[in-house]
Specification:
With 260 residues, the protein is an alpha/beta fold. Helix 4 packs across helix 9 and helix 5 runs antiparallel to helix 6. The structure holds zinc ion (ZN) and fe (iii) ion. Fe (iii) ion binds next to helix 2.
Length: 260
């Protein structure tokens, strides 16, 4: 299909409801609140046709019922989580067509047990990844329901996506993530450059997202557990960590206690 337009709609303190449109019809991802979506649809004169949900948390699902009631949209979400009525169920390996584009469903458990991601579409010739609370710029989601091994596997699968993939994370957590990342890798020049860029964007009130897989591979410690400098930093916190999963788990625990 033709190129889509991608818009992050801010919601609550630091959520983004990602919106896609073709000038007439629109799709939103993880609408925790219906109000910013309805205001945007009205402002742009768009018809909502699809709602994608990555996981069951209220800040991602709270607007689904009202949007289904006010529009003719269809909604899709994870197969194995408690979701609002009317959401069709998907799991990894399945595909859906939205706005004339194919989206692949990926299983990415860890933040929640049934978390899924959507990969597909096209903006400026780049595919889109809607990863919910699995991958953030410079960080990853907390492990509320999954194990470190599950989350490490989920992040590893996202790391193999094309480098130009646009990573549409559901929260603006970038600056605090990058402060932690700088503690892990104080000599990472790409990380320092990205921090400077993001400080500038936030000072202007602009989103730091979308990111790209290529950028995250260069700056995100949770995708860099194989790098010697990240390994040794994690092992300074947790000397018994050897395998990648244990290095990842040590980093995640370190971040959980980090006061940025
Ligand atoms: Zn969440
Ligand atoms: Fe969230």
């Amino acid at each position: 299909g033709p190129d889509l337009r991608l818009t992050p709609l801010p919601a609550f303190n630091d959520n983004y409801i990602w919106a896609l449109d073709n000038g007439h019809q629109a799709c939103v991802v993880d609408p925790g609140d219906d109000k910013p979506v309805l205001a945007w649809l009205q402002d742009k004169g768009l018809q909502l046709i699809a709602i994608l949900v990555t996981h069951h948390h209220a800040d991602h699902t709270g607007g689904v019922a009202a949007l289904l009631a006010h529009t003719g949209a269809k909604a899709w979400g994870p197969a194995f989580e408690a979701l609002p009525d009317g959401v069709q169920r998907l799991s990894g390996g399945q595909q859906i067509e939205v706005l004339g584009h194919r989206f692949d469903v990926l299983d990415v458990p860890g933040h929640t047990a049934g978390h899924i991601a959507f990969m597909g579409g096209k903006v400026d010739d780049a595919p889109l990844l809607f990863c919910g609370d699995t991958l953030f710029s410079g960080g990853c989601g907390r492990l509320f329901e999954g194990t470190p091994a599950q989350m490490w596997q989920s992040l590893s699968s996202l790391a193999t996506l094309p480098r130009h993939t646009l990573v549409c994370c559901a929260h603006e957590y970038t600056l605090s993530n990058l402060r932690f990342a700088q503690d892990v890798e104080p000599d990472n020049a790409a990380l320092q450059a990205h921090m400077a860029r993001c400080l500038d964007l936030r000072q202007q009130g602009l989103p730091t997202l979308p990111s790209t897989i290529g950028l995250e591979l260069a700056i995100n410690p949770f995708l860099r557990v194989g790098e010697p400098c990240v390994r040794s930093a994690a092992q300074a916190q947790c000397p018994e960590a050897q395998h990648d999963t244990d290095i990842f788990a040590a980093l995640r625990r370190w971040k959980d206690q980090f006061k940025g």
